[in-house]
């Protein structure tokens, strides 16, 4: 979970934000169903504390729709298949729409065959991988998701030219009495969205997050945004980044290398982003309840380890996000005021109203 520290925040009700964002996407031509799918994904990311992939991205998505870089009415379809393996063409739909379509098919195929592979091309930025893999976990499956990033932001190890994305991946497995164990990570030290959030809120970043365009470490988010992100684990992260690109993009002919446009800087360019989903039906291997009990036992075992000085609790992947989600869906989501003010202005241009107290100075917490 990102450790965001916002200078000024406003707390908004989960359901109200979801309805507000859905209305915005409908205003630019999306069907109510697709608009809700997209908004739901973004608001859940915020509730989980992953603000870099939440509603702060709405202005960029909508700009791409309005300028032709993304088709708000596109319908994903299966274009090829063999047994439990299919290829989906998103036809330049919203990434959340294409990936949600693929997730539905991956669950259906895994139930029939025991496992499934869904390769998606013609898509866009899909948001968080956890959104899709946790749907697999909810269906008593282990879910994997790989994606190529929607812009090149990482240099090959030893280089300074941005020739790779930070190509995230996610894995989820269900537990019996605990939240699913979910690893959702970019192959860089941090996602570029966190750098973008730092730019919006005017805060410095740690020096190990990124390099400027000359290959020097920087704490300036703007210099980092126009430079390259650092791979996690140095050359190991670089290697993982390339392998993720192979399975998510090179495999199905999606954009790679020079064909990848900048998601933020080129709103008119069609991205042709690629993803790969692989789901395993637990019941094809063992009793589901027995597996979930073993997962509970494994989590308990790890959390019971002796802790280093100053460590209050040991967490497993996805646990902090699950706690944030439970808290913020009940109490309201804390947003940086700058993000809500920007979205309110966008809503005005779209004819979508915003509650006045959301952006008023008295709402600052």
What are the key terms here?
single chain; 365 residues; alpha+beta; Hypothetical Oxidoreductase Yiak, Chain: A, domain 1; Ribosomal Protein S8, Chain: A, domain 1; Wheat Germ Agglutinin (Isolectin 2), domain 1; 3 domains; seven-stranded mixed beta sheet; two-stranded antiparallel sheet; globular
Structural summary, described in words:
The longest helix has 19 residues, at 95-113. The chain has helices at 14-27, 32-47, 58-67, 95-113, 130-138, 192-201, 221-225, 235-250, 288-303, 319-331, 337-350; strands at residues 9-12, 77-82, 85-89, 115-123, 141-147, 169-173, 181-185, 210-211, 228-229, 273-281, 333-336. It folds into 3 domains: 1-67 and 319-360, Orthogonal Bundle (Hypothetical Oxidoreductase Yiak, Chain: A, domain 1); 74-187 and 235-285, 2-Layer Sandwich (Ribosomal Protein S8, Chain: A, domain 1), CATH 3.30.1370; 189-230, 2-Layer Sandwich (Wheat Germ Agglutinin (Isolectin 2), domain 1), CATH 3.30.60.50. The protein is globular, with a radius of gyration of 20 Å. The chain contains 11 helices and 11 strands. Helix 1 packs across helix 2 (32-47), helix 2 crosses helix 4 and helix 4 packs parallel to helix 5. It is an alpha+beta fold and 365 residues long. The strands form 3 sheets. A 7-stranded mixed beta sheet has the order 2-3-4-10-5-6-7, sandwiched between helices. The chain has a two-stranded antiparallel sheet with strand order 1-11.
